[in-house]
Each structure stands twice: as structure tokens, then as C-alpha cells.
Amino acid sequence: MSVSIESPRVKPAPRRGVNWEKWGWLYMRASGVLLVVLIFGHLFVNLYAGEGVSALDFGFVAGKWASPFWQWYDFALLWLALIHGSNGMRTIINDYTTVPIGGTRLRRLFTPHYIFKTLLVGSTIVLLVLGTLVIFTFDPCPSGAPADLLPTFCAARS
Amino acid sequence: MSLKSTDLPAPAPARKLRPTRTAGRFSLPKRPAGTVYRGGEGMWSWVLHRITGVAIYFFLLVHILDTALVRVSPEAYNAVINTYKNPIMGLGELGLVAAIGFHALNGIRIILIDFWSVGTRNQRLMFWIVIALWAVLMLGFAPRHLMHVFGGE
Ligand code: HEM
Ligand code: HEM
């Protein structure tokens, strides 16, 4: 009886399909570079410049989101940061939980690995939708609000 | 490019695993000899990167919810954002900036290790550059932020 062992120097056959793990890896790096700029800009304007945190209120946000520049800035920040963070948390879940094998699909779903992943995917989708809606449906001059809390450009203030 | 075993950093010269004698008693050596990775800058940068990443992630979850209050009412948003201005939250923001500062700078270090031909060889030096830049960042930010938070107005 002879056993044949593949030569270790032979290139493994290329795998079929999209290599998602590789694109995720690349995304962490590409989004990271962009996030350095976006987050430091965000913190500089909201936390450092002028009065720092003391300046933050409804009028401050209304003033920023009156400009499409800050709307799209926050939109990019939201999507890049949340997907980067979620993909990072996915790695951490993979590191600290074991993927169940055997049993029914339903039984496997109720194991720590899949419970955490379901929560992760669910919360990420909800927050991406919520955050996007908040930016683009924002109303700087809601009727009935106390005029002194509104930005100066609202009709209620003049 | 394929890695050969000779491309790996040479393991630290193995210390003799002979028990050392202290005050008349035997004690085992403090750590196993010859590990490439355990302890040292490589491990601690990973630990810090992971902890800061998780901390920023949970902040972001809450932060998207608190910002969403602008769609509820100006009163609701102002009430919550005013808590950002009290001293305890002020210290929390300092911690957040410290965490982001490290995660961002070390993230650039990771990217350089992955894409820069001599990145891996210089990872230890780059770790200390990260720490130095982080210290400069915090020295620039902390006094001004604490003045905003504790300064009265
Ligand atoms: C203590 C530090 C921070 C303060 C005081 C702060 C303050 C604010 C304020 C006032 C807004 C309203 C819109 C605007 O001004 O652009 C906002 C929105 C936002 N911030 Fe921050 N921020 C902080 C840290 C961060 C960090 C670290 C991140 C990213 C990881 C972040 C991500 C966002 C996002 C994504 C939005 C838009 C939310 C939405 O779509 O509803 N912020 N932040
Ligand atoms: C400021 C710019 C940022 C840069 C340059 C950056 C860079 C990186 C890099 C290079 C990785 C390693 C990915 C890997 O090992 O494959 C990483 C992991 C991670 N990042 Fe970021 N990141 C940034 C912001 C953020 C933000 C805002 C969050 C949270 C919302 C976050 C959360 C995470 C998490 C949870 C991990 C996984 C850590 C681990 O696997 O140990 N990062 N980041």
C-alpha cells in the first residue's frame, strides 16, 4: 500500500467565489485612513474649536446641517465608522465564541456565536437607517418649539 | 510574495530553563523562553487596539441615539447634550479622545506594517512613535478641554 503525499511546493488550486474575508480586511484599512480625517475633523469642530463642548445645542446642529457639506460629512462618518466598528466586533465575536456544528439550524441559532452576530447585524442596520434619516429629514425650525432654542435663521425668531 | 521561515524574526535566544534559586527556595523561571510575541510592544499594541476599538464602538451606538433626539424636540436634544458638559462626562470625553487618539495612530501603524516593505521590521519603533504622538495630542487637547468643562461657562 502506498500513500501519496502532495508536494508541498505545489500552489493550491484557487478558491471559487468572492473572498469576503479579504475585502473586509481591505475595508478596515481603507476606511481607517478616511476615518482619521473625518473623526479628527469632527472632534476638532465639536469639541475643540471655539467654546468646545460648551457650545453644543440644538441651534449648533441646525447651523451645521443647514449646509449640505456637513450633512454629507456626517453621512460618510456614520457609514464608514459604524461598518468599520461592526466588522471589527465581528472579528472579536469570531475570536471568543465557537461556531456550533451539528444540531438543527434553529438549535444552532440559539448559541452565543449566532446570538451575538444577530444582535450585531440587527443593531448596525437599524442605526445606519436611523442615523441617515436623522441627517436628511432634519427640521431646523420645528413648529411649536420655544423660539429661543431655535437657530437665528428661523422665521419664529424674527 | 510568499513567506519563507527565514523571513520571520529570529526568536530571542532561548534562556536556560533551569530553576533559579531564590532565598533558599526553588522558583520557576518568570516566563517561558524564546516566545516571539508574548509580552512586548507587539502584544500590548494589539490589546490596546482591541480595547479602544470596542470602547469607541459602544460610544458610537449611544452617540447615534443621542443625536437622533434632534428629531424629537430641541428641548429633548438640549437636555441630553447638556449632560456632555458636566465634569464627569467631561472626563469621559477626555478618555474617549485618548482612546480614539491611540486607536487611530496605532491603526496607521498597522496599515504601515501591512503595506510598507520595511513596516514589519520597524513595528517596535513605530509603536513608540505612536505613543509619542499620542502624548503630544493629549497635551494639546486635555488642558483646553478641561478648561471648557471646568471653566464655569
Ligand atoms: C465627545 C466627543 C463628541 C462630541 C461632543 C460629538 C458631537 C456631535 C454632534 C454635536 C453631532 C451633531 C451633528 C454635527 O455636529 O455634525 C454629532 C453627530 C455625529 N457624530 Fe459625534 N461627537 C463626538 C464624537 C464622535 C465620534 C468619536 C464619532 C465616531 C466614531 C462620532 C460620530 C458621529 C456621527 C456618525 C454623527 C451623525 C449622527 C447621525 O447620523 O444622526 N462622534 N456628534
Ligand atoms: C480613527 C480612525 C481609525 C483607524 C485608522 C482604524 C484602524 C483600524 C485597523 C487598521 C484595524 C485592524 C483591522 C484588522 O486587524 O484587520 C482596526 C480594528 C478595529 N477598529 Fe478601528 N480604526 C479607526 C476607527 C475606529 C472606530 C471609530 C471604531 C468604532 C466604531 C473602531 C473599531 C474597531 C474595532 C472594534 C476593531 C477590531 C479590533 C480587533 O480585532 O482587535 N475603529 N481599526
List the helices and strands and how they pair.
The complex is a heterodimer of chains A (158) and B (153).
Chain A: H1 20-48, H2 58-65, H3 68-96, H4 105-109, H5 112-136
Chain B: E1 20-22, E2 25-27, H1 40-68, H2 74-83, H3 87-115, H4 123-150
Antiparallel strand pairs in B: 1-2
Helix pairs in contact in B: 1-3, 3-4
Q: What would the keywords be for this entry?
A:
heterodimer; A: 158 residues; mainly alpha; 3 helical TM bundles of succinate and fumarate reductases; 61% helix; 0% strand; B: mainly alpha; two-stranded antiparallel sheet; 4 helices; 2 strands; 4% strand; binds protoporphyrin IX containing FE
Report on this model:
The complex is a heterodimer of chains A (158) and B (153). Chain A is 61% helix and 0% strand. Chain A has 158 residues and is mostly helical. Chain A has one domain (20-157): Up-down Bundle (3 helical TM bundles of succinate and fumarate reductases). Chain A starts with 19 loop residues before the first helix and ends in a 22-residue tail after the last helix. The mean pLDDT of chain A is 91. Chain B is mainly alpha-helical and 153 residues long. Helix content of chain B is 63%, strand content 4%. Chain B has helices at residues 40-68, 74-83, 87-115, 123-150; strands at residues 20-22, 25-27. In chain B, strands 1-2 form a two-stranded antiparallel ribbon. The N and C termini of chain B lie far apart (59 Å). Chains A and B meet through helix 1, helix 2, helix 3 and helix 5 of A and helix 1, helix 2, helix 3 and helix 4 of B. The structure holds protoporphyrin IX containing FE (2 copies).
Average residue pLDDT of chain A:
91
Strand order of the largest sheet of chain B: 1-2
> What is the overall silhouette of chain A?
elongated
CATH topology of chain A: 3 helical TM bundles of succinate and fumarate reductases
Poorly predicted residue ranges of chain B: none
Strand content of chain A: under 5%
Q: What is the CATH C level class of chain A, in words?
A: Mainly Alpha
In this structure, how is the largest beta sheet of chain B organized? 2 strands, antiparallel
- Give the full name of the CATH homologous superfamily of chain A: Fumarate reductase/succinate dehydrogenase, transmembrane subunit
- Largest pleated sheet of chain A: none
- CATH architecture annotation name of chain A: Up-down Bundle
The structural domain count of chain A equals 1
- Amino- and carboxy-terminal Cα gap of chain B: 59 Å
Mean pLDDT score of chain B: 84
Helix-and-strand structural type of chain A: mainly alpha
- Helix proportion range of chain A: 55-70%
Alpha carbon gyration radius of chain A: 24 Å
Broad shape of chain B: elongated
Total of helices of chain B:
4
Give the radius of gyration of chain B: 23 Å
